[in-house]
Amino acid sequence: MLEKVWNPRLPYDTLIKDLVDIHPTASSFTLMLDKARHHANKCMQDSFKYAKERWDKSHKPPDFKIGDLILVSTLNFNNIKGPSKLKDSFAGPFMIKALNGPNSVQLELTGELMNKHPTFPVILINPYSSSDKE
């Protein structure tokens, strides 16, 4: 035997009854926007991939080892004596004491640069060869 159950009317039920139907072109417009967003994301991913391939093709990671002799760029050094246009572009040679990750090295500094912080980014150092002597 079935029991009679009271089914109350909720505020949501009255709202659904009063809602106006959405215009049919609105759903196609949202579909078009979703397709455009998906296409833009795909184009961005393709351009990121292309840029990474081009960068990796022309740049190789530095191959420094502990104990290598290197030259340090004097671009940011203010404590080297003499006029700036006459100072050497690179100072050294200095020996690599430690590798602090792929992009920085710690050096054993001597002379005027002994008071500088010994860690330098690899972009500011060049390998030293014996032909670099003056």
Automatic annotation (TrEMBL):
Residues 67-128 form the Tf2-1-like SH3-like domain. It comes from the Eukaryota. This is Tf2-1-like SH3-like domain-containing protein. The lineage of its organism: Eukaryota, Fungi, Dikarya, Basidiomycota, Pucciniomycotina.
